[in-house]
UniProtKB/TrEMBL annotation:
<keyword id="KW-0326">Glycosidase</keyword>
<dbReference type="InterPro" id="IPR015883">
    <property type="entry name" value="Glyco_hydro_20_cat"/>
</dbReference>
<feature type="domain" description="Beta-hexosaminidase bacterial type N-terminal">
    <location>
        <begin position="21"/>
        <end position="156"/>
    </location>
</feature>
<keyword id="KW-0732">Signal</keyword>
<dbReference type="InterPro" id="IPR015882">
    <property type="entry name" value="HEX_bac_N"/>
</dbReference>
<dbReference type="Pfam" id="PF02838">
    <property type="entry name" value="Glyco_hydro_20b"/>
</dbReference>
<protein>
    <recommendedName>
        <fullName>beta-N-acetylhexosaminidase</fullName>
        <ecNumber>3.2.1.52</ecNumber>
    </recommendedName>
</protein>
<dbReference type="InterPro" id="IPR029018">
    <property type="entry name" value="Hex-like_dom2"/>
</dbReference>
<feature type="signal peptide">
    <location>
        <begin position="1"/>
        <end position="17"/>
    </location>
</feature>
<keyword id="KW-0378">Hydrolase</keyword>
<dbReference type="Pfam" id="PF00728">
    <property type="entry name" value="Glyco_hydro_20"/>
</dbReference>
<feature type="domain" description="Glycoside hydrolase family 20 catalytic">
    <location>
        <begin position="161"/>
        <end position="367"/>
    </location>
</feature>
<dbReference type="InterPro" id="IPR017853">
    <property type="entry name" value="GH"/>
</dbReference>
<dbReference type="InterPro" id="IPR025705">
    <property type="entry name" value="Beta_hexosaminidase_sua/sub"/>
</dbReference>
<comment type="similarity">
    <text>Belongs to the glycosyl hydrolase 20 family.</text>
</comment>
Length: 687
């Protein structure tokens, strides 16, 4: 077999190289040959005595490759007869531990050889075997009886030991457990090995019955998620807030006295009851999450700073911060945990990095595509020679659909800075602050960051959506790739119109997307940006067309995702429509009544019962509310859904009230009556 492989390597042809499969992440070394292995000839044995992690990887081989090609892999009666062979050097090593070093660990290393004779995988641990299976899935070409795997020799290992995604389970909708599992499966494709579960008070705790009641996860659900991640070689890491960002606890009268300020956001470190509570929480959380790591937040503790600035100059808010972090670290050390904490308060306390406990690993987060901003937080950590993680984000919290260029550049710059300065790991943030956007819209960008973390460099963004779609949606790749690009372009057009004055709130267009479009400011803004609003609508409609077409031939497992993306595209179009229609209605009335002094069917145009401009908006609002509700239920728990649906109700009332006002005005006056006031002055459009 070795001779066959060596001979095949000499027969690599340029023609074949041009048609090689898309592999994300790109392996360290890839050598294609002219051989190919018909998938129908591939067989695998799953020994009953093999470790569970190995058995799972082999079962995944049957499942994933079968899904990709539409043809099952046959089970062999013996390992010696199987055409898929593997060697795992040692047991254990399913998850990363706290002592791994970049480029020095072979835990995730694998070598994959495919020839006409079969497949051979050599791995140090079951993690390497599992990642070889993920690569093999992408290597499959064709479908059904014509499916095959090209001859290839691949050797691969990650550039970074720790590659994670932080999912927000505090601000927006709460993902169902099934959706979390789908995310973990998705991230495993890109060889991600950490899933940070960002929690403020969305996990039920013994002794705190009102915490997370009908608004969070039970301990049984968390254990289910942790176990699911472990099977896929992904460590579910607790990401807690043990200082700030605890408003959902502190707004309760039972716990309000523990806060700084009235119904505030931060625990008051000066109160002894705080640490007693945290000791209880830490015991419960460490029992729930076996991960060797724990992220404790400690970001944006502005209220502590205001104690000293505004009330009592004798207090050192910096010392309180260090005191609290030291306490938390010491408590977690008792449970063998390695503590991670954010460093953004360095912006307020320039010397704070040298004061944090040496055992705490700083995590540098910066979500702007700005090297100066990244270095502002990175340089103090480098000065103290501390090991660190770096954390960019998907810019999806301020937009219905993420800002593509902003996100890509932020990820690229953070990864470059991390690689240049030997970061321990990479954590990719996904925030849900405005609640409305679906997390599924961020999946493309999550993949981009995860792929970059394994490779040590990001993919080429010029053709990323196209190549990503070939892997994710092989039967509808062209359409999905176009849809992603249209959505990104639609968001870019909206970004020219909205989001100008939202400092202090989530950056982006979503803050203004439900504002009253008849206000003088917005009518003027729409007049200045008519072309951009129209372009946003057109691009969104093009995206909808591609997505609707894709539904007809897409894999059934992808239809729920595509439906969510259609709703996202419709929301973007609606955001532009409501501003354009407000201007169109006002202009139509004013031009007819005030300029030409002629009532030429203007009421008909605005209020026609099935095709009027006001009815247009009400129709789309109502249909979109139903579609949004369906998409929400397919991704999220019920918590916060009514908050979002209420936006549609208030919005509908605006247009319905206007409709009735215009109708009543028409009834109260003669048919030939010409108004002497502008539309806004006469009807005073308001919620």
């Amino acid at each position: 077999m070795l001779i066959r492989i060596l001979l095949a390597c000499l027969l690599v042809t340029p023609v074949f190289a041009q048609n090689t499969p898309v592999l994300f992440p790109e392996p360290e070394t890839v050598r294609y040959t002219s051989e190919r292995l018909p998938l129908s000839s591939l067989t695998v044995a799953i020994p009953a005595k093999a470790p569970k992690e190995v058995q799972f990887a082999l079962q995944e081989l049957k499942k994933l490759v079968g899904e990709r090609a539409g043809v099952g892999i046959k089970t062999s009666n013996s390992a010696s007869a199987a055409r898929f062979r593997y060697a795992v050097a040692k047991e254990g090593g399913a998850l990363p531990d706290a002592g791994e070093k970049n480029g020095k660990s072979s835990r995730e290393h694998y070598k994959l050889t495919v020839s006409g004779a079969g497949v051979r995988v050599e791995a140090e641990t079951s993690a390497g075997l599992y990642y070889a299976v993920q690569t093999l899935r992408q290597l499959v070409s064709g479908a059904g009886k014509n499916a095959f795997i090209p001859g290839v020799i691949i050797e691969d290992r990650p550039k970074l030991a720790y590659r994670g995604v932080m999912m927000d389970f505090a601000h927006g909708g709460l993902l169902t457990v099934d959706e979390i599992k789908r995310q973990i499966d998705f991230l495993a494709m890109w060889k991600t090995n950490q899933y940070y579960f960002y929690n403020e008070v969305s996990i039920e705790l013994k002794g705190y019955p009102t915490v997370a009641y009908r608004a969070g996860y039970s301990k049984a659900q968390i254990r289910e998620i942790v176990a699911y991640g472990k099977e896929r070689h992904m460590d579910v890491v607790p990401f807690l807030n043990l200082y700030g960002h605890l408003h959902e606890l502190l707004r309760s009268e039972q716990y309000a006295d523990l806060a700084i300020g009235q119904y505030g956001h931060e625990l008051d470190p000066r109160k002894p009851a705080i640490n007693a509570m945290l000791q209880d929480w830490i015991k419960q959380y460490t029992d729930l999450f076996p991960s060797p790591f724990i992220h404790v937040g400690f970001d944006e503790t502005w209220e502590t700073k205001r104690i000293a600035d505004d009330r009592d100059g004798r207090i050192s808010s910096e010392n309180l911060w260090v005191q609290q972090l030291t306490f938390v670290q010491k408590e977690l050390e008792k449970y063998g945990k390695t503590v991670l904490a954010w460093t953004d308060m360095n912006n307020y306390y320039p010397d704070i990095i040298k004061k944090i406990p040496k055992e705490v690993i700083p995590v540098i987060w910066e979500y702007k595509p700005d090297t100066v901003e990244i270095n502002r937080y990175l340089n103090p950590v480098l000065k103290e020679k501390k090991p660190f993680f770096i954390q960019p984000a998907v810019s999806g919290w301020g937009h219905i659909y993420p800002d593509a260029d902003y996100t890509y550049t932020n990820i690229d710059l953070c990864l470059q800075a991390g690689m240049r300065n030997n970061t321990l790991g990479f954590i990719h943030s996904v925030w849900t602050d405005p609640v409305e956007p679906f997390v599924r819209a961020s999946w493309l960008f999550m993949a981009y960051g995860c792929i970059g973390a394994w490779q040590g460099k990001v993919p080429d963004k010029k053709d990323f959506t196209e190549r990503y779609s070939q892997i994710m949606y092989p039967s509808v790749a062209a359409g999905m790739g176009k849809a992603f690009d249209y959505l990104a372009a639609s968001n870019a057009a909206l970004d020219k119109c909205l989001g100008r004055n939202t400092a202090g709130m989530p950056r982006g267009t979503i803050i203004e997307s439900w504002s009253n479009p008849f206000l003088p400011y917005y009518l003027k803004n729409t007049t200045e940006h008519v072309a951009d609003f129209r372009n946003a609508r057109k691009l969104s409609e093009l995206a909808q067309g591609e997505l609707i077409t894709a539904l007809h031939t897409a894999s059934p497992k992808d239809t729920a995702f595509i439906h969510s993306m259609i709703v996202t595209a419709r929301l973007m179009a609606y955001s532009a429509t409501r501003f354009l229609w407000a201007k169109t209605i006002s202009d139509r009335w004013d031009e007819s009544m005030l300029q030409r002094k002629k009532n030429d069917f203007v009421v008909y145009d605005i209020t026609h019962l099935c095709h009027g401009l006001l009815i247009d908006v009400m129709d789309e609002n109502g249909e979109l509310k139903t579609a949004y509700s369906e998409a929400w239920k397919s991704e999220y728990l019920p918590y916060r859904m009514n908050t979002m649906l209420g936006r549609f109700d208030v919005e509908y009332a605006l247009w319905q009230k206007l409709f009735l006002k215009v109708i009543d005005y028409r009834i109260e006056n003669k048919p030939e009556h010409v108004a002497d006031q502008s539309f806004e002055a006469l009807f005073k459009p308001d919620f």
